[in-house]
Amino acid sequence: MLVGDIDNDGDPDVYVINEGTHNRLYANGGSPHGWLRVTARGVISNPDAIGARLTAWVGGRSYLREVNGTAGMSYSSRVTLFGLGEAPRVDSLVVRWPSGAIETHGSVAANTPLHLVEGGALTAVVERSVGASVPLQMVLSDAYSNPFNECRSAL
Length: 155
Description:
By secondary structure, this protein is an all-beta fold. It is about 0% helix and about 40% strand. The protein has no helices and 15 strands.
């Protein structure tokens, strides 16, 4: 099972890998509620920021997320998602890096993808889409021989 925001709409989608039958993608249909999506990169800490703890403060309430690469026996996206409900913004975002450093960032508007680098400023991500960002169909084609492999079999 893989969990991540496949369609970049602020909610997690689930891809289930099945043995003996077709795999399944369960894409959430989106929500009218606000969200915040944060990707983090460690500099002093590990590059994937695994172990970083992000706390979003919204209207006096805190929401804690930890960057990890797994969820049980599965791989999950390292993108951190916060559901914000009706809130138009996050009042502040506090990051506790695995190195022990603590950074506090100011107000951020809802429905914003952010990129955070340890020791740097919080950066809004501008996403450009060319056509549909999610394929309508996925196909696994037959394997082709590798022309760079010296052990090629004769056709």
